[in-house]
Specification:
Elements (H helix, E strand, L loop, with lengths): L2 H49 L11 H17 L2 H20 L10 H41 L1 H7 L2 H27 L5
Length: 194
């Protein structure tokens, strides 16, 4: 390996990493927004069904509690607060379980347990993508900064460390590429649960 190859490799790495990171950022923004809308949509659906009095049977003795939860859910949907939507859906699911224990028949396909389970699966996908994205951007940023730093001191590093510095840069570069591919794969693998 000569100094020109060293320079060329170190100058190519940040360009590729920056391009992939930009494409990944656009993909993630769209995917996470879609999943967030699905999660908020679950809350809207439960709120609409509650307003249509589908859940009145669960609150025969305490209509005030139902009104409070409806308002809480409505506010959570308007604020797009995933955590709050989940808490209210879980509350409704627990009320449904209590009603079933009292002998009321619940349709398992459309019941709140089903809605809550689907919500949780979609939320897990949302969290998994966010987690992998954070790790990927940390590795990508490290790769980019290290290669730019190495390029700034290329003559010195080439003379004293040779291929060691280049190997470290390449390992981080390939790790960033692999993690980006994993994030895209996870994001495309499942469409989210509607």
């Amino acid at each position: 390996m000569n100094i020109n190859t060293f320079y060329y490799t170190l100058s190519t790495i940040p360009q590729i990493v920056a391009a992939i990171s930009a494409i990944l950022a656009v993909f993630l923004f769209r995917r996470l927004e879609t999943l967030k809308n699905i999660l908020i949509g679950y809350g809207q659906s439960v709120y609409d069904r509650s307003k249509d009095k589908e859940y009145d049977f669960m609150f025969q003795n305490n209509n005030h509690q139902k009104i409070t939860q409806d308002l809480r859910l409505r506010d959570a949907v308007h604020r797009k607060n995933i955590r709050e939507v989940k808490l209210v859906i879980k509350f409704y699911k627990n009320q449904e379980n209590k009603s079933e224990e009292k002998g009321i028949t619940i349709n398992k396909e459309t019941g709140l347990r089903h809605v809550y389970d689907e919500f949780c699966r979609t939320e897990q996908l949302y969290i998994k993508i966010k987690h992998f994205a954070k790790v990927t951007f940390i590795i990508s940023t490290t790769s980019l900064l290290l290669s730019v730093f190495s390029l700034s001191f290329a003559d010195y590093l080439f003379t004293n460390y040779g291929s060691k510095i280049l190997n470290i840069n390449l390992i981080l570069f390939f790790l960033a590429i692999i993690l980006s591919a994993i994030v895209v794969f996870i994001g495309l693998k499942e469409e989210g649960y509607n």
